[in-house]
């Protein structure tokens, strides 16, 4: 299915470069003089001008000079200026290659000269405006009407985050979602097709059905989840990527325990579309609007304050005292002002929601000197790609006007892989960033692992403590912090600020007061519904929280009556159950789910939905298929054996046995009350109910 539009040939790109250069040198020259300077005909000049206007490299205005025969004036746009730099480097690189080949032919050896270095960012001044992809307000109103008649793609939350940073310049120099050539270059060697450093594939993944409705060269409208048109895109490329290759090269392994690899294989569409975009309006954010800044807004803010050196601190977690000490030291080491730049887009499943985190950040901002510190929110969809992500974060912060960037130990690491090992080495991200920082134009400040030295009542870098054997070193891990919060235990002031702890406790009350979901899975006839009913009665007897049973048959009747039993429909049914369960959990209730749920990827998706708000307890009812068939009161297994029921779990369709459920129960020769009691004991052991 691979195909794409023919790329502009080098001769035409040379002419575009010469046109831009000539308009830059002599903006008031007549068309005849411009054509003569470039060495082309007037007809060819007009074709080039139309092409450059269409690509938004130049804009047309009315000529005000004395030459009445010259009706129009042409001016280079900011996008055109950036393109001129790129084309110049490309032109020089090609001429160098031609010279080197000629030198080798005449002398039998290479010239020995070094080729030019690609410039990731043509604008070296970190406070100058950078190109955005938005059209003017007047053009946007017209384009919005025209876009209403185009085929539309409804963006996923991750695609919306990506589009916003494409449009506002956060992903500069990208001009849209990656083409196939750019994608291949990024996956294989972290570079776009023209050699520009860029480590992360920014792709528009769509379904096969949607891709088949699109012709190459066609414009489509990009809408948010509420149907608002944010941009249009000219589809120049359409292809089916090798996702296993992408996983191995970008994330280091084709391992579904990595959240981005799981997204790649089980959530993202099978087909990628690439092409330039035209921004109409930015996504609407109703929360923390005063804290959200585009790259150019931050650059203007830095200019206004006279800041020249700015160090950015990336975080997706609340700030504690160790982070404060770290950022103080980083700013001092870099002799720079501090930008606290937390991610509020999409982070790792299970992370604290950004509403809580931002309230925590605001609670400790007064601990920082206001004259040298500011905070802005970044609507980024993280990939947790470790070393590549660190380079990506650096480029994004460079676009936001920063000169330095703090890179932490295991920066953007996703945790453990399927073998139980860390995906990346603790300093892999720092090593890769260090290799590219000169080209990127932003310096790394090493993250220091800070620990509390009780004897001196202060935080110090762990690797700089020379008297470790003679002092008491204290530290609380993230796991220990979550345990203390869930069990209502004390969190000492040396570790965190009281205001931060207060905010965290609002969102994370003791586990015995939180909502949670118990998710039973197993074959038809395994006893799921019976145990679930018994558990519901026992929990209602205890009281304290509302309990809701979402049994498979009940949901089928009341929530999914129109669905069949294809894999797609069964997945949709389970996702609906998961959504309802997550809402119940979010609002402090107990959801008990008892579907078959045969597919591991769907159960994982439901787990991620629920764990945003509370605990997810998977219970595998491990009754054998033979016993289920023996119990078969409805005669379903008999019909499945006869081929009268298609895609029947355990007979003609697979069941993915849970690998690491919170609990596995056997029902053969065990009464229902005992099975339900096992679940209760597990919930008590997890702190979800009080003994």
UniProtKB/TrEMBL annotation:
Gene, per the UniProt record: cysC
Keyword Glycosyltransferase on entry: no
Pathway connected to this protein: Sulfur metabolism; hydrogen sulfide biosynthesis; sulfite from sulfate: step 2/3
Binding residues for ATP: 522-529
Protein name: Adenylyl-sulfate kinase
Protein origin, superkingdom: Bacteria
Biological processes, Gene Ontology terms: hydrogen sulfide biosynthetic process; sulfate assimilation via adenylyl sulfate reduction; sulfate assimilation, phosphoadenylyl sulfate reduction by phosphoadenylyl-sulfate reductase (thioredoxin)
Organism of provenance: Aliiroseovarius sediminilitoris
Keyword Transmembrane helix (UniProt): no
Similarity remark: Belongs to the APS kinase family.
Ranges of residues in domain APS kinase: 514-665
A GO molecular-function descriptor: adenylylsulfate kinase activity
Function, in words: Catalyzes the synthesis of activated sulfate.
GO CC field: cytoplasm
CDD domains for this protein: APSK, ATPS
Boundaries of every Sulphate adenylyltransferase catalytic domain copy: 292-506
InterPro entries reported in the protein's UniProt record: APS (IPR002891), APS_kinase_dom (IPR059117), ATP-Sase_PUA-like_dom (IPR025980), P-loop_NTPase (IPR027417), PUA-like_sf (IPR015947), Rossmann-like_a/b/a_fold (IPR014729), Sulf_AdTrans/APS_kinase (IPR050512), Sulfurylase_cat_dom (IPR024951)
């Amino acid at each position: 299915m691979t195909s794409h539009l023919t790329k502009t040939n080098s001769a035409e790109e040379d002419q575009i470069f010469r046109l831009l250069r000539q308009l830059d040198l002599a903006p008031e020259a007549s068309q005849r003089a411009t054509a003569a300077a470039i060495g082309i005909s007037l007809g060819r000049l007009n074709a080039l001008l139309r092409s450059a206007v269409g690509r938004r490299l130049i804009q047309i205005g009315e000529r005000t000079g004395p030459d009445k025969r010259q009706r129009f004036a042409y001016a280079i746009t900011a996008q055109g200026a950036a393109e001129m730099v790129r084309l110049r480097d490309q032109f020089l690189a090609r001429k160098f290659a031609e010279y080197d080949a000629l030198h080798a032919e005449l002398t039998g050896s290479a010239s020995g000269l070094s080729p030019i270095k690609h410039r990731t960012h043509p604008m070296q001044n970190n406070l100058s405006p950078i190109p955005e992809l938005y059209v003017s307000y007047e053009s946007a109103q017209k384009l919005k009407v025209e876009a209403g008649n185009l085929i539309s793609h409804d963006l996923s939350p991750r695609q919306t985050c990506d589009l916003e940073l494409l449009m506002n310049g956060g992903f500069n120099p990208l001009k849209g979602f990656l083409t196939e050539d750019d994608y291949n270059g990024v996956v294989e060697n972290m570079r776009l097709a023209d050699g520009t450093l860029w480590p992360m594939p920014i792709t528009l993944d769509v379904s096969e059905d949607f891709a088949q409705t699109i012709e190459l060269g066609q414009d489509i409208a990009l809408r948010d989840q509420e149907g608002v048109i944010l941009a249009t895109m000219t589809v120049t490329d359409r292809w089916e990527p090798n996702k296993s290759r992408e996983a191995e090269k970008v994330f280091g392994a084709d391992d579904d325990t990595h959240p981005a690899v799981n997204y790649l294989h089980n959530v993202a569409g099978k087909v990628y579309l690439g092409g330039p975009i035209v921004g109409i309006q930015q996504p609407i954010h109703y929360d923390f609007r005063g804290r959200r800044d585009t790259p150019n807004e931050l650059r203007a803010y830095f200019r206004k304050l006279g800041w020249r050196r700015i160090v950015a601190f990336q975080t997706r977690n609340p700030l504690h005292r160790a982070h404060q000490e770290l950022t103080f030291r980083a700013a001092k080491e870099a002799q720079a002002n501090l930008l606290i730049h937390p991610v509020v887009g999409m982070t790792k499943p299970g992370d604290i929601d950004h509403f809580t985190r931002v309230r925590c950040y605001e609670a400790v901002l007064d601990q920082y000197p206001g004259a040298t510190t500011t905070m802005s929110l970044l609507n980024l969809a993280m990939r947790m790609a470790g070393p590549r992500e660190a380079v990506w974060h650096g480029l994004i912060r460079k676009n936001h006007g920063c000169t330095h960037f703090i890179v932490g130990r295991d920066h953007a690491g996703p945790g453990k892989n399927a073998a139980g090992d860390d995906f990346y080495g603790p300093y892999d991200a720092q090593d890769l960033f260090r290799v590219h920082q000169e080209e990127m134009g932003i310096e790394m400040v090493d993250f220091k692992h800070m620990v509390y030295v009780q004897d001196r009542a202060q935080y110090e870098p762990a690797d700089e403590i020379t008297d470790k054997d003679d002092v008491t070193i204290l530290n609380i891990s993230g796991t220990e912090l979550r345990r203390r919060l869930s069990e209502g235990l004390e969190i000492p002031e040396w570790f965190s600020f009281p205001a931060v702890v207060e905010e965290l406790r609002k969102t994370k009350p003791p586990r015995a007061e939180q909502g949670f979901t118990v998710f039973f899975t197993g074959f038809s006839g395994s006893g799921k519904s019976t145990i679930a009913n018994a558990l519901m009665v026992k929990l209602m007897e205890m009281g304290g929280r509302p309990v809701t049973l979402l049994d498979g048959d009940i949901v089928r009747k009341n929530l999914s009556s129109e669905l069949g039993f294809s894999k797609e429909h069964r997945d949709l049914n389970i996702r609906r159950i998961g959504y309802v369960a997550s809402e119940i959990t979010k609002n402090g209730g107990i959801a008990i789910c008892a579907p078959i749920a045969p597919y591991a990827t769907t159960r994982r998706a439901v787990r991620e939905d629920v764990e945003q708000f509370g605990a997810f307890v998977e219970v595998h009812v491990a009754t054998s298929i033979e016993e289920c068939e023996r119990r078969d009161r409805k005669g379903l297994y008999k019909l499945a054996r006869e081929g009268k029921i298609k895609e029947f779990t355990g007979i003609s369709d697979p069941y993915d046995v849970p690998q690491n459920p919170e609990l596995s129960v056997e029902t053969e020769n065990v009464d229902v009350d005992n099975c339900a009691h096992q679940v209760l004991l597990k919930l008590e052991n997890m702190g979800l109910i009080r003994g």
